[in-house]
Amino acid sequence: MELKRFLVNKLILFFMLSTLIAVAVFLIGSAFDSSARLGYDALLVPIEYAALCMLPTLVMWSKRELSARELLVRKALMLVLLEGVILFIAFTSPVIDTSSVRIVLTIAGSVLIIFVLANLFLWLKNFAEAKNISRDLEQFQKLHQADGDVAI
């Protein structure tokens, strides 16, 4: 994958993660500490988490197309690194009660859910792009077959 496309995909992923993290923070916060009132600086938390979560996605960079096995290994490594980043943040944060196993498991589970959702959304985006390219290629071939040209 060319670097420009890789970086554009990472930018799309960043905004997707920011949204999903904001929803997860709201849900977890509402479940465990619904009486808390936060300042405006709390609005930056999902953006900061999304930025930190972008670092493990760099394991997906490759100049060549990855095989299915390589892709799965890198995705698994990326998930482990993402869990590590978020749990490190949670354990070093003074506002997150990591003494509760339930909270830690909820955070780890939310990372897994966000990982699955982000990959599903990206897959759907790529599937739609591939479908459009296939349709355009098919129209191109029909056009040249109608002109008497050799089909590509």
Word description of this protein:
The protein is built from 4 helices and no strands. The protein has one domain. Helices cover 73% and strands 0% of the residues.
**What's the number of extended β-strand segments?**
0
Strand fraction band? under 5%
Uncertain runs are: none
The residue fraction in helices comes out at: over 70%
> What is the terminal-to-terminal distance?
24 Å
Please compute the radius of gyration using only Cα atoms: 21 Å
Number of helices: 4
What's the overall geometry?
Answer: elongated
Average pLDDT figure: 89
Number of domains: 1
Order of helices and strands: HHHH
Largest sheet: none
Helix/strand-derived category reads mainly alpha
Reconstruct the topology from this structure:
Blueprint: H1 3-32, H2 45-54, H3 68-92, H4 101-146
Nutshell version of this structure?
The chain is mostly helical and 152 residues long.
List key phrases describing it.
4 helices, elongated, mainly alpha, 152 residues
